């Protein structure tokens, strides 16, 4: 894509580019460290750039040919977090190792996972009687683990299904308990969320399962039901840490990291401690919450580098002022994009009921559907990628997670207006 | 550790340090790329260093305060692979994204996972009738997945247990089939491997399970049994890609990546295709090989960055000349270390039968066990870390996987001799 630029090995950029040392105070920039083994044949040229590096106000996401990536997950990450990871990749904070090389039982990695948990607890204000587990296998693994841990085979559980992911969770649970679909938005193409008061819950249901934000259909719970029977369990993969949540209302919150808080390969489970310890006999040891809780997520080797990256993201969210501030930014971005759709006089369309439109995933179609392919293609030329909608719903989808800058949504909206003007 | 050096923000090092562009030809060094948005206020200083960067023969593992890390896993990775990952972290090959941000269904990541599989197939000469799966959850998840996929609950399978990991696999399988322990080295503290011809296999056994290299006990199969009934299944987590293997002798080979081929969080399963498709009804969808094989490991979001890192390691192993060359290096390292133990007149001791000593994990104790703590502590001062033995066996353990340079073993052996001279 930028091959002409890439072929130039011009070091001037490093010296003028303020991003390289964007987190200079916190990062150690180990790869710039004097080397004991540097070749004596090459005369060093000394250039101190610390002041220069701190002087520029250019935000980290600009420059270096960074694109705006609207993928639904894995998704864009904060540029400053990536820069910090880059600076520490080869030698983490003077340890002489990459995080990828550290024993998961060594003091270096223990400090990383403990800091990650502590920052997450502070962000979500997680009560003491909840365990935080860093696991593997994505939300899909939890679709099995939850009934295996909470139910006997004959126990009933309830599902309110507002999109494809909730439906997958429902189907997987059929292997391990007796789930009941007490509401499904399928006939309505998953465009709404029911009023919970009107629904009849199964008597003796062990839990009520919801998907807090449906990544494919762009439907998001704005408040949460209070189940009369059992506990509330929520898949928050695609809106985790995008706004404050009252954790005490839930028995289990679980989320794949690869939308808002890190790379793929890490799954976070927040579970009330009294729910742990009753797994069915057929539960694989790696799906048993008791094993992971007792071992602080270190029963076997965890996905160490992914947990480290999540930790950097949590640190960044704390530095932004916490989830109240993050939510404000997300509301502003969502408003900008939904308004653009509303004000297009039907040129662009979003099918979801206004009150439950997702602030994370915005699917939209065009009145003239034959233009959609061109829209997506032209957007790529403008360095906005992954705008194609999920194959099951078609059209377009803009995922605008925490790390999507406001400027990215502005650019998309400007492009949408231009495209409309050209094709109206 | 190197805080004095770290506080100096002297860019001259980058210019003189040959490691920074160690893989200049292959890597793109994206973070050095001219930025479209560079600040106009800062005058660029242009310095072309490509020739300088390529000129030095200093190996990548030297310098920059890199330590020798003898951890059993996660473990040391090739320094040049880490340098390449560093150079691509922020912007992968001009894509404008980090690998951590890429959609797993986008063309960029598809090229990464396909190249990784293709290089692994070439390294191990994997026949066409085998699937290669990139999964999550470590070998421990496979301890359940294998019987769930290969057996009905009443099927018998055989285990030859030569260490703690094989024992864990045996115990987990009891949930899903009828395993039989046809040999265990436990009473002998796991120091040997039986002659398979003398063992009686269960009639109708679906498979024979072995752990090809026991990480904790340092016991390694040098050739493999031919089961009379069923197929051979091997956990190769800790010697995967350390030497050539005739894959066609196995039904399943599986391995966590975090010893020889990448960071933790990736599990590789190589399985003969005709074994796929008969999972028990209670199998979690994420443990069903059919789902992963049909979807080329992309049923849900895979651990993308970990797979990318494995791909870089595979590329490096190919560049080294393949596994025959890698095995030669490993034999040389193992010989050096075991000879030092043998020649210590009992000062150092390895309990394992000579013919099956592991070339990957070398546990050893001291005649004067009260000196062991001091040995480990003094080694850290010499920048050799993670030499403490597993808590279940005590003493020391040096893990000398593919990425441990010969110089690391030389340094350890010199240290051992010095230590002995001081305490003899």
TrEMBL record, chains A, B:
It catalyses: O-phospho-L-serine + 2-oxoglutarate = 3-phosphooxypyruvate + L-glutamate; 4-(phosphooxy)-L-threonine + 2-oxoglutarate = (R)-3-hydroxy-2-oxo-4-phosphooxybutanoate + L-glutamate. Belongs to the class-V pyridoxal-phosphate-dependent aminotransferase family. SerC subfamily. InterPro entries: Aminotrans_V_dom (IPR000192), Aminotrans_V_PyrdxlP_BS (IPR020578), Pser_aminoTfrase (IPR022278), PyrdxlP-dep_Trfase (IPR015424), PyrdxlP-dep_Trfase_major (IPR015421), PyrdxlP-dep_Trfase_small (IPR015422). Pathway: Amino-acid biosynthesis; L-serine biosynthesis; L-serine from 3-phospho-D-glycerate: step 2/3. Its cofactor is pyridoxal 5'-phosphate. Residues 67-412 form the Aminotransferase class V domain. One of its GO terms (cellular component) is chloroplast stroma. Its EC number is 2.6.1.52. Keywords: Amino-acid biosynthesis, Aminotransferase, Pyridoxal phosphate, Serine biosynthesis, Transferase. Residues 27-38 have a biased composition (Polar residues). This is Phosphoserine aminotransferase. Residues 15-40 are annotated as: Disordered. One of its GO terms (molecular function) is O-phospho-L-serine:2-oxoglutarate aminotransferase activity. Involved in the plastidial phosphorylated pathway of serine biosynthesis (PPSB). Catalyzes the reversible conversion of 3-phosphohydroxypyruvate to phosphoserine. GO terms for biological process: L-serine biosynthetic process. It comes from the Eukaryota. NCBIfam families: PRK05355.1 (NF003764), serC_1 (TIGR01364).
